[in-house]
# Entry
Amino acid sequence: MRLLVTGGSGYLGAAILKRAPATCELAATYLAHSIAQGNAAAFRVDVRDADAVNHLFDEFRPAVVMHAAAQMTGDQMLAVNGDGSRNIARAATRVGARLIHLSSDVIFDGEHAPYDESAPPNPISPYGESKARAERVVLDELPRAVIVRTSLIYGFDPLDPRTRQTLNGEMPRLFTDEYRCPIFVDDLADALLELAQHEFVGVLNLAGAQRLSRYEFGIKMANAFHAAPRFTGALSASYPGRRPRDCTLDISLAQKTLRTRLRGVDEVLQDLPGF
Ligand SMILES: NC(=O)c1ccc[n+]([C@@H]2O[C@H](COP(=O)([O-])OP(=O)(O)OC[C@H]3O[C@@H](n4cnc5c(N)ncnc54)[C@H](OP(=O)(O)O)[C@@H]3O)[C@@H](O)[C@H]2O)c1
# Structure
């Protein structure tokens, strides 16, 4: 399988490249950071640049594309996540590639959890709006795309940036009333790789099986590292902007569709050697 991973220099992209079977012929894109995995042909491509995207697709001719490139902050979120995703979907359509697009649980307002795949997006943050727009443009261009909605991505090798900041004391307050379904990056990467060869099309929730507040999640990670928590619990109302409160995703469709198990945090920590 010829697999193209956009955002190969990012946290999820790197895990997909690392866990891809040796039978995959891999290409990956980066923008500002290099790609650590040496098993992929690396292309520096800005997804906002339609010509560059088309050139890449013509050169590599992927059978499957995992579109993980995105920006979570800044004034380019709409351009990168919205227009960039349209460029990727158009190019995938042109070369007949299967597209797996990475979306997020923050496309929801957080007031109507749990969300299954039929739940209508209603973002309340600029990042959520950009990811909701990305879903719309991808499905407009390529109705047979797969839209994967996922939650907080964490892992240990390497440590994900959010957990690193939490353990370092760079996130001094974690919300006790904001709920997510954190997903272990290896489980997510394996599920995506299974999906690559699956006939499923449409929207699919891929999140961890355990709903946790951000504070509970932080405590579990601190305990796993035998570290004293360097944060306190806080209510999300103390945050100056709007944040979705409960983005719990219903993963029953994924559990019926895929062999890969989407474990909860407790199960992942129990299974990890040395923890
Ligand atoms: N992390 C989470 O907890 C989480 C939760 C829900 C959904 N998601 C979604 O999952 C996907 C992967 O997330 P992640 O945590 O792996 O993100 P990440 O670590 O921040 O990586 C983002 C990637 O996007 C690339 N990128 C940014 N702007 C670009 C542009 N204009 N053109 C081309 N590439 C660009 C970055 O390249 P450089 O670094 O080389 O610049 C990097 O490879 C994203 O779609 C995200 O929205 C993530």
